[in-house]
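Worked example 2:
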Amino acid sequence: MINILLCCAGGMSTSLIARSIQAAVLKKGKSDYVKAMDQDSAEHFLKDFDVVLIAPQLRYILTKLQKMVEDQGIPVAVMEQTDYGLCNGEAILLFAEELFQKNPKNESSNYLF
């Protein structure tokens, strides 16, 4: 199970994407958890997640968020703009899974795509 945090300016657009990702999770028979939050709220909960994905319009806070969780090794990345704009939950889920798998702290994980 992967805990995925989606972050945007107000939490509205990522809530739509979270629903799309959750549908992809169910389609794959997984039990991943997806939560959408606005930027300010997300900063307080970053450490509770395995992967943090931010909306393309928040690209400017990427380094700030990465520094906030660097000691936990939690990957923080920007969602691909086309997938974000199309609410492509399957592609964004795959991106989150890849980030999770590439994280050295999860090398021993039995998470399968």
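The mean pLDDT is 90. The helical segments are 12-27, 39-45, 62-69, 81-85, 89-102.
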